[in-house]
């Protein structure tokens, strides 16, 4: 009888324990997965500066050359002549004035000079008669242009030799290219810089500019090849800025490149707005 009672008590205890266990399981809280940590915002490494309107950022072309005393020689002393009509690159128009001069030289001797002429559409050209003798046929020539507004004399090697009766610029215009032969600046060309990860929508009014310190040394529409000007005989550290019309300001990039003597051309130049 005692043994039967013990079995009954054990069965009751197990039943009670099972009931309590089932009840406890039913009341356990649901397991809540932790919220994923937000990904950190990318770090903007280009510094933004707001502007009122589009910045002008002109290159400072002012120099200190004195007006030259170029004079055409006496034609009676020469056997031959050739003819040239030289047109100025449109970028010179801002600086050009009636005091400008254009001249041809053979062996550093002036052989023809002209004051400027302006057409009805604003084009600027210089008609020049170049004089020479028999021993100078096929001689190398140089062209010098004095820009009064810049106070600079630009000198380049002529792309032709002295050739009697040759006429240059009557059918195909010869344009005196802007900036070549400057005593102040070297021309340093580079392919269009690439800008990755812009935090704005690009506009056709956007442009990129090159700087030495706070001095602009060239600019171009985004996607175009840039010409950067550095001081003659100098090696200079160049930085870049991107002007965004939609953002009404510009982004300055921390990366710099060396340009000037020994650093004339870059075929790949990529800038990132955000740290990678």
Task: Walk me through this protein's architecture.
With 276 residues, this protein is mostly beta strands. The chain has one helix spanning 2-26, and strands at 47-50, 80-88, 101-106, 109-115, 117-118, 124-132, 142-147, 152-157, 167-168, 174-176, 185-190, 194-196, 207-212, 215-221, 226-231, 235-244, 249-252, 257-260, 270-272. The N and C termini lie far apart (84 Å). 23% of the residues are buried.
- In total, how many beta strands? 19
As residue ranges, the low-confidence spans are 1-18
Give the helix tally: 1
Rounded mean pLDDT is 88
Helix proportion of residues, in percent?
under 10%
Strand fraction: 35-45%
Please tell me how large the radius of gyration is.
Answer: 38 Å
Between the first and last Cα atoms, what is the distance in angstroms? 84 Å
| Biggest sheet statistics | 6 strands, antiparallel
Structural class: mainly beta
Query: What shape does the CA trace take?
Result: elongated
Draw up the topology in text.
Layout: H1 2-26, E1 47-50, E2 80-88, E3 101-106, E4 109-115, E5 117-118, E6 124-132, E7 142-147, E8 152-157, E9 167-168, E10 174-176, E11 185-190, E12 194-196, E13 207-212, E14 215-221, E15 226-231, E16 235-244, E17 249-252, E18 257-260, E19 270-272
Parallel strand pairs: 2-9, 2-10, 12-19
Antiparallel strand pairs: 1-17, 2-6, 3-4, 3-7, 5-6, 7-8, 11-15, 13-14, 13-16, 16-17, 16-18
Give the tags.
single chain; 19 strands; mainly beta
Give a short summary of the structure.
Helices cover 9% and strands 37% of the residues. It is mainly β and 276 residues long.
């Amino acid at each position: 009888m005692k043994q039967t009672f013990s079995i009954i008590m054990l069965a009751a205890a197990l039943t009670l324990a099972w009931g309590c266990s089932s009840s406890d399981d039913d009341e356990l809280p649901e397991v809540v997965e932790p919220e994923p940590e937000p990904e950190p915002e990318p770090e903007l490494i280009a510094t933004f500066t707001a502007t009122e309107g589009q910045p002008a950022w002109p290159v400072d072309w002012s120099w200190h050359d004195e007006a030259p005393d170029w004079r055409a020689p006496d034609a009676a002393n020469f056997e031959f002549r050739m003819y040239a009509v030289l047109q100025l690159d449109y970028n010179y128009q801002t600086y050009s004035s009636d005091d400008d001069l254009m001249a041809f030289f053979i062996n550093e001797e002036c052989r023809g000079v002209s004051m400027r002429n302006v057409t009805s559409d604003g084009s600027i050209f210089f008609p020049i008669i170049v004089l020479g003798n028999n021993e100078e046929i096929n001689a190398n020539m140089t062209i010098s242009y004095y820009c009064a507004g810049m106070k600079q004399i630009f000198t380049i090697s002529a792309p032709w030799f002295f050739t009697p009766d040759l006429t240059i610029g009557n059918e195909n215009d010869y344009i005196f290219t802007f900036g070549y032969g400057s005593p102040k600046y070297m021309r340093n060309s580079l392919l269009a810089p690439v800008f990755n990860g812009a935090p704005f929508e690009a506009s056709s009014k956007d442009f990129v500019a090159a700087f030495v310190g706070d001095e602009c040394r060239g600019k171009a529409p985004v996607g175009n090849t840039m010409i950067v000007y550095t001081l003659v005989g100098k090696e200079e550290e160049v930085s870049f800025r991107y002007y965004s019309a939609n953002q009404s300001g510009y982004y300055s990039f921390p990366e710099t490149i060396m340009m000037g003597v020994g650093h004339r051309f870059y075929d790949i130049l990529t800038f990132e707005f955000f740290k990678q």
